[in-house]
């Protein structure tokens, strides 16, 4: 074996690599001690009237900004002037470089964030943004948005706008809401991906547009100095064809000072033209490529549906009363609803007698969406004597269902996100099964699918399965 063939000690199978976990902390302690005593310092930062001795190696370790800065000092003068930060804020950045500790509070966090962004100190910047996010509330979010936009802090702006969208109704009622830039609101409300929440409930189609319209009207009523172009862009950012004219008129009743504004009335007339076009398209199966021919001056975004968050429609964990003892069950019952914008508005349950006890004889579900209401029914929904119903309020959803079943569906009970318990309706027979909404940001009962069978002279419900929708 020649000397070139000798094994690298690190590759020797009998070698060991040891690591001292206390070494990084010890290095920081020594560096901090050297800073306090002035030992080995090789650069001085001049900030305002103060001088801060430091070590290039330490400052280089927290940000590429300082590496580039030191390259500029090619003559090795050893002094660097900084004019974009206060001595107090630079002192906090310097202390972090030598201790790894960050002292922030509500009074200094914005200035520290500006400094961290300027010096490209990612850890400090991220911690400041997280700190600000933790105390965001309706009363301060508009000012934080203004701060983020002024200093081009896109990460912070993204988080504050997210808070705004989750609390738009409350924020739009706040006295600081009119301070927001109209361009920001136009961009926000025009977005096809606008996702809005109210009391942790996802708003869809008509509910979403009504909230946007009210926010726009509140803003316009306090920003009367805006020119007509801004007013028109704000009004057109609302997908007005999603809203019935009666809803628009109800919203305007709360804003007497602008209700008769010429721009608002002109945009409402454009809505009428758009609705006529959409109705004709639905009847005649027109393509959207005909838009430029058939509709003039109508905002193009009115003909695009806003998107929803990603969602999953899942079936319940079992089919109820699907054993086939009374009637054949060849598979899953037919699903009649697929539009994720649809929501259960009302459930009607008819109860009949079968074999000496009560069972569900008929079931009707009414769904609401931007197009109105749709009903689906199974079984006998007219002639039976016992009739029960559950009508859900806006932003109320079923999150738990109790099913009693044996050969047939004996009873149904429901619990909503508002804590309301309805039922159970029907008899006491059969086994009890409880299904809950799946885990997720927002989950609820989407649909009830079932079949009916003739038993002892009249219909009864069997082969029932629940379908849930979960938004991510």
UniProtKB/TrEMBL annotation:
It comes from the Eukaryota. Residues 1-24 are annotated as: Disordered. Residues 41-106 form the BTB domain. SUPFAM superfamilies: Mannose-binding lectins (SSF51101), POZ domain (SSF54695). CDD domains: BACK (cd14733), BTB_POZ_ZBTB_KLHL-like (cd18186). Keywords: Kelch repeat, Repeat. PANTHER family: KELCH-LIKE PROTEIN 32 (PTHR45632:SF3), LD33804P (PTHR45632). This is Kelch-like protein 1. It comes from Biomphalaria pfeifferi (Bloodfluke planorb).
């Amino acid at each position: 074996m020649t000397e070139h063939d000798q094994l690298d000690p690190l590759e020797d199978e009998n070698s060991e690599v040891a690591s001292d976990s206390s070494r990084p902390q010890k290095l920081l302690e020594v560096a901090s001690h050297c800073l306090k005593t002035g030992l080995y310092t090789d650069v001085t930062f001049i900030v305002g009237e103060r001088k801060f001795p430091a070590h290039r190696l330490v400052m280089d370790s927290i940000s590429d900004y300082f590496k580039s800065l030191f390259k500029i000092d090619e003559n090795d003068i050893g002094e660097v002037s900084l004019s974009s930060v206060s001595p107090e804020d630079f002192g906090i950045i310097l202390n972090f470089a030598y201790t790894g500790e960050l002292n922030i509070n509500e009074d200094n966090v914005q200035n520290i964030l500006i400094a961290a962004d300027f010096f490209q100190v990612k850890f400090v910047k991220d911690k400041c943004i997280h700190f600000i996010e933790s105390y965001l509330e309706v009363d301060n979010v508009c000012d934080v948005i203004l701060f983020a936009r002024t200093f081009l802090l896109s990460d912070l702006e993204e988080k504050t706008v997210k808070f705004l969208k989750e609390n738009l109704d409350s924020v739009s009622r706040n006295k600081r809401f009119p301070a927001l830039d109209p361009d920001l609101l136009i961009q926000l409300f025009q977005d096809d991906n606008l996702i809005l929440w109210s009391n942790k409930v996802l708003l869809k189609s008509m509910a979403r547009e009504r909230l946007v319209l009210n926010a726009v009207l509140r803003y316009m009523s306090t920003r009367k100095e805006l020119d007509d172009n801004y007013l028109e862009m704000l009004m057109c950012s609302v997908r007005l064809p999603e809203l019935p004219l009666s809803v628009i008129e109800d919203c305007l009743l709360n804003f007497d000072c602008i209700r008769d504004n010429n721009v608002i009335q002109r945009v409402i007339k454009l809505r009428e033209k758009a609705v006529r076009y959409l109705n004709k398209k639905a009847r005649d199966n027109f393509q959207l490529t005909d838009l430029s021919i058939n509709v003039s001056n109508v905002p193009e975004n009115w003909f695009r549906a806003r998107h929803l968050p990603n969602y999953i429609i899942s079936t319940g964990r079992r089919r109820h009363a699907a054993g086939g003892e009374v009637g054949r069950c060849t598979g899953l019952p037919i699903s009649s609803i697929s539009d994720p914008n649809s929501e259960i508005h009302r459930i009607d349950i008819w109860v009949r007698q079968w074999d000496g006890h009560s069972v569900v004889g008929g079931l009707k579900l009414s769904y609401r969406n931007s197009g109105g209401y749709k009903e689906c029914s199974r079984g006998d929904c007219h002639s039976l004597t016992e009739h029960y119903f559950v009508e859900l309020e806006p932003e109320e959803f079923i999150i738990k269902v109790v099913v009693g079943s044996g050969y047939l569906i004996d009873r149904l009970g429901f619990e909503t996100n508002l804590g309301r318990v309805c039922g159970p309706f029907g008899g006491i027979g059969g086994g009890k099964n409880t299904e809950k909404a799946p885990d997720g940001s927002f989950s609820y009962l989407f649909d009830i699918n079932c079949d009916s069978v003739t038993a002892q002279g009249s219909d009864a419900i069997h082969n029932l399965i629940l379908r849930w929708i979960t938004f991510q």
